[in-house]
User: What shape does this take?
Amino acid sequence: MILLAGLIHFPKKVIFIFSCVLIFGHNLLDNIHFDDNILWTFLHERGPVLTTPDHTFRVGYAIIPWIAVMSLGYWFGSFYDRTYDPVKRKKLFNIIGFTAVLFFLILRGTNLYGNLLPWEKYNTLEQTIFFIS
Assistant: This one.
C-alpha cells in the first residue's frame, strides 16, 4: 500500500504498463536466487525467513507481483467513473475475464511459463482440474 501511494502520482498509462510488466514478467526472475537474503525472499521468493526451535516464519506471498496486482486494480478503478458507460464496462470486463481464463488455461496446460510444478493428470477430470490426488 505504501508503494501504491507513490504510484498513483504517475499517469494512468504508466501505471498500467508498470502493472502488466510486473504481472506478466515476474516469473522471469525465478532463476535468480540469493541465499539467505531476507529482502529477496520478501520481494520474490516464497520461503522461510526466520526459524526458531518452536516456530518458522515463512513468506507466502512475494511483494513484487502483489504490488502490480494492487496498482492494476487502481488503474481499473477509472472504469467506474460516472462518465463511463456501465454496459460498455460490463462488456469490456467480460471480455477481459474470459480472455484471462483462456490465457491461464493455455499457459498452465502447456507448462511453458509460470508455475514451476508441471501440470499433472489424475484419474478423473475433476481431480485433474482441482489438483486432488
Remarks:
- The chain has six helices and two strands.
